[in-house]
């Protein structure tokens, strides 16, 4: 494997760096976007029951004790429970907007990696082919084995770039879709809690 990387030339270095960054982001997002971590059903039921019983202090304490996108939004609503319903709705929407970047954290970087690594690989292939044709212009096509070896080396970077770029693209789209579904679910829960807080 190491010899494969070495044959790819210096452009394998940025591709390797991108692969490490992409892997780190993928692992971090897989952990951070677990539904149980973002939308704890048990915790939601506890907060809902406390709010139905008008136990504002207890529900506030519970939200602070278990910080997550959901509890931070609910905490902003609970702390402003004395406001009018329209004002409280704006507070919840504002809190939700602050949570969106956290749910989409690092996805811009992952999306960029999914685009640039195949391009870096293509650049490596083009650069390698330039060197091959430079050798042809100097020495002719006397030894086809040398030319084949040069072309093989040139194609390694494209293969490496695609190997990193394709999974990065797949996971980026997956995380975008998952964060969108979480945001929609947070909106539904927020509306439900708003109605509980401001029930007549």
Please provide a written account of the structure.
This protein is mostly helical. It has one domain (2-197). Helices cover 85% and strands 0% of the residues. It contains nine helices and no strands. It has helices at 2-7, 12-32, 35-38, 41-52, 56-65, 69-79, 85-103, 107-139, 144-197. Helix 6 (69-79) packs antiparallel against helix 7 (85-103). The longest helix has 54 residues, at 144-197. It is rod-shaped. The mean pLDDT is 84.
The SS-based structural class is mainly alpha
How far is it from the N-terminal to the C-terminal residue, by CA?
68 Å
Largest β sheet strand count, sense and barrel closure? none
**How many alpha or pi helices?**
9
The mean pLDDT is 84
Based on CA inertia axes, which overall geometry fits?
A: rod-shaped
Question: Which residues form runs of ≥5 with pLDDT under 50?
Answer: none
* Element string (H = helix, E = strand): HHHHHHHHH
Report the portion of residues in β strands. Answer: under 5%
List keywords for this structure.
85% helix, rod-shaped, mainly alpha, 0% strand, 200 residues
């Amino acid at each position: 494997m190491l010899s494969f990387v070495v044959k790819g030339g210096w452009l394998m270095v940025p591709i390797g760096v991108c692969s490490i960054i992409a892997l780190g982001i993928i692992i971090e997002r897989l952990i951070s976007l677990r539904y149980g971590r973002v939308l704890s059903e048990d915790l939601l039921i506890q907060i809902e029951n406390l709010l139905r019983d008008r136990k504002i202090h207890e529900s506030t304490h519970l939200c602070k004790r278990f910080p997550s996108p959901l509890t931070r939004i609910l905490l902003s609503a609970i702390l402003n429970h004395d406001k009018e319903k329209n004002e409280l709705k704006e507070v919840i929407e504002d809190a939700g907007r602050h949570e969106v970047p956290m749910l989409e954290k690092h996805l811009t970087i992952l999306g960029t990696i999914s685009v640039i690594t195949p391009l870096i690989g293509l650049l490596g292939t083009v650069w390698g082919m330039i060197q091959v044709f430079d050798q042809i212009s100097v020495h002719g096509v006397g030894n086809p084995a040398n030319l084949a070896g040069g072309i093989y080396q040139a194609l390694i970077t494209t293969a490496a770039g695609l190997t990193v770029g394709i999974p990065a693209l797949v996971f980026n789209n997956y995380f975008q879709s998952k964060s969108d579904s979480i945001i929609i679910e947070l909106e539904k829960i927020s509306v439900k809690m708003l109605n509980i807080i401001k029930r007549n």
